[in-house]
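Reviewer 2 asked us to include a model.

Predict the structure of this chain.
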Amino acid sequence: EPRTGCGFSKLRIIDLSDNRFTGKLPSKSFLCWNAMKIVNASELRYLQDVLSPSGKLLMTTYDYLLTMNIKGRMMAYNKIPDILAGIILSNKSFDGAIPASISNLKGLQVLNLHNNNLQGHIPSCLGNLTNLESLDLSNNKFSGRIPQQLVELTFLAFFNVSDNYLTGLIPQGKQFATFDNTSFDGNSGLCGKPLSKGCESGEAPSNEDHTEGSEESLFSGASDWKIILIGYAGGLVAGLVLGFNFSTGIIGWILEKLGRQQKATRRRRRRRN
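Predicted model (C-alpha cells):
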C-alpha cells in the first residue's frame, strides 16, 4: 500500500506471484490504478519508453518479454499490448477478504489470486468487471455461495474456485455452461452441474439483488423452470410440477393467493344468489 497519495496510476499489469508478501490485499492501490479502469483503447500499442537525451524527445520501443499465468496456462508475450490489464498475486500468504475497491478496475482482463489464505465470501461486485476473461480464486478459504452476478461476465473464458469452502448451487447458464467440474472440485458443499452431486430438495439459486417479498423477485427465476402447472379445482391445488422445488416462502405465497381468489369467488356467488 502506498503510504501517502496514489502510486502507479499508469500501471496495467502487476505480477508479484511466488514471493513472500503477506497481509491484506492493497485495497487503496486498487483505487489508484487508473489505467486498469479503462475498458477500450483507441488503437493497439505496445509498452515503450520515452527518452529525452540533450533535451530532444526520442521515443524508443522495447520488446519486453512477459510470461503470465492466464486462463490456466502460462502464456508468453514478446511484446506487451497496452490494452492488457492483469493482476497476478498468486502463491503468497495474503489473507482477509477481497476488497470491494477492486470492482473499480473495469478494464481488468486477468485476476489471479490462486493459492493464498483469502477468506470470506466471494464479493458479488466482481460481476462489475465486465471485461474479465480469466478469474482464478482457487486454493483459498472462501466460503458461502458463488455469486449469481458472475454469470453476467460474458467474456469469462477461464474460471477456477476449486479447493475452497464454497456451498450451495453452482450458478447456471451463459459462460458457466462452458466450465467443467475441475473449476469447482474440492468444495464439498457445492452442488449442481457440472458436478455429479445433485442439490438437496429446496435448494434454489440466490440473487442478492432481489427485493424481498416482491412478486417479481419470487418468480424471477421462472426462465429456469422446465414446467409450471398450477391447477385449481374445488379450492384444491391440483398439480404443481417444477423444474426445481419451490421454497417454503413461494409455496406459501401461492396458497395465500389461491385462498384470496377462492374467497372472492364465494362472495360473487353469494351476490348472485
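The CA atoms of residues 192 and 198 lie 5 Å apart. The first helix runs from residue 27 to 32. We have added this to the supplementary material.
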